[in-house]
Amino acid sequence: MTEKTDRRDTGVFTIPNLLSFMRFASAPFVFLFFSLPAPEGRWLTLGFLALSFSTDFFDGFLARKLNQQSDLGRILDPLADKAVVLALLAALVLYRGVPLPVVLAVLARDLLILGGGLLVKVKRGVVLESNIWGKAATFILMVAFLVFIFEELRIVALLILGAGLVLALVSFVTYVVLFIKTMRGT
User: Dihedral angle at the C-alpha atoms of 158, 85, 113, 111, nearest 10 degrees?
Assistant: First the structure.
């Protein structure tokens, strides 16, 4: 939905924002660990992604719990997610043969949502928040990407990826509808 009128903008150096900054900075390491030979590379990648995903959970949880929600956090959190996903997608294309058109479709969706969100912020002064479809799509796609770490589970990963792409399409449509409504002021 749109921003809440009763929230406080608490600034830059909050615990949730620092967690998002850390996740953003971790993106190159995801790619690096993925390039290491198995089995060490697999387990390092899996562990590092688990750590990265946990910061994604905790930054949102702590922002709400500590009343440290901010416009910067609303922008930085998905941006950090995209940086980690981009590093992971590049590794999947290079090291696991995931089709490039799939990766480009996911990236195009994310860039359009990010660009639309920034446009709404500039034009209307409103920050669009994630919706359940976007969160579900991200979760399912992340599961697929994690399964791709294990080459022997490629068929399972492709099935999960297909489900994630369907959810990504649904989430994109819901974001477009929200974007249009917000830009029209309805």
Answer: -100
pLDDT, residue 10, reads 58
Q: Which domain does 160 fall in, by range?
A: 15-184
Helix axes 15-34, 40-65, angle to 10 degrees: 170
**Number of domains, the chain:** 1
- Please provide the distance, in angstroms rounded to a whole number, between the alpha carbons at the two ends of the chain: 12
Specify the pTM. Answer: 0.69
The tokens describing 28, both together, are 């190159």
Amino acid 83 reads: A
Separation CA 21–CA 36 (nearest Å): 25
User: Which CATH number is 96's domain given?
Assistant: 1.20.120.1760
Rg (CA), the chain: 17
